[in-house]
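User: Sequence in, structure out. Go.
Assistant: Echoing your sequence, followed by the structure tokens.
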Amino acid sequence: MKLYNTYTQKTEEIKPIEENKISMYVCGPTVYNYPHIGNARPIVVFDTLVNTLEALGYEVTYASNYTDVDDKIIAKAIEEGVSEKEITDRYIEAYAKTRTDLGARQPDYAPRVTETMDHIIQFIDELVKNGAAYQAGNDVYYRVNSDHCYGELSHQRVDDLLVGARIDENENKESPLDFTLWKKTDKGIQWDSPWGKGRPGWHTECVVMIQDVFKKNLIDIHGGGMDLKFPHHENEVAQCRSLHDTSLANTWVHNGMINVDNEKMSKSLGNVLWAKDLIEQYSGPVVRWMMVSTHYRAPLNLNAEALDNAGKEIKKIEKPVQQALLILTLNQMTPGFDQNEPHYAEFITQMAEDLNTPNAITALMAAIKALNTALRKREPDLEEVALLCGSVNQMMKILGVRMNVHIPDETEIETWKNWKQAVKEKDFEKADGLRAQLMEAGLV
């Protein structure tokens, strides 16, 4: 398996720390609202990556966190007159439902910041004690100049960052680049710490959660959206390097952002789309197909035409698969699978090449063309039909796109037999009625 590593800016073969095992962590959402469609893209991208790794024989441990401590969460809780936990529980449930609707698995581990607080405080304290962080009043900041490699992940020079840094109102900071590890707060949820009551900054939590989940300071893959590369992931690396002299992950993977009708999705433009609304309008499989049709590192342009086309393409796949299931059931056969089947072999080769889903889908559609050809034969080769059907099933499973197909039941089989008999007897009125029933079920 090869992946583009943001850190090295190269496509590299994955070399697991433990043989045949992959440890992967993906930055999750701050849960103060429903997931928008931008939140949905990493769900799809990294679920597809897990599917691919497993198809290649790796055992994957997948973790993705929930940030349930944030000013926006506190503000929403105050606005609604409820606790922060009530807000975060509501949206964590919504986020989990979006995963399911998109055909994605739940992560093996989904830690929350509030459940990791003791270790976060301990981690910050260790940074202070080794000189990588400092206390200023009741706040704690990471000392960026303590990390001589700062900027390596995002490929930026500290001097350039300083030139572009905003003027900070907090004069206690040694440098405008220094970032908050702990801050004093006067409202909302708080914790006791060596620096007074408060709550952590954003950039520490993932480093600590990775250590908690994986019990080590270096994992195979760390992922998230391109917008997290700097400063969030850069700051994670800096903290981990200060305490453990590692870059936290061997491979850093970032998915591209989503545009809506060729414009950046943002609140200021008023074009933020909620994932649940698109799923309700188009279905989870259609939204997912639209996403996997574009390479994960490329910007994804979302519009009605792209979603409509996704629905049409899925139907092109479902129809021959459903017909194949009918023929196989009539002959008391089931779909087979052979990883050496040429279409599947090409598909998995492309998926293993930096998750090249567009090329993989080309292989999938070639399999559909072959399946249609096989089904049109007067006497279909049942073994060929079974093998192609099985290959398509496996490819769609790896892409994570659920098909609306089913094994025909006894009633449907009887209808099909009666249709064939009516055609044979040239009872066209009866045949047309039965065929209409079969068409509605997708069986012809």
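User: And one key feature?
Assistant: The mean pLDDT is 95.
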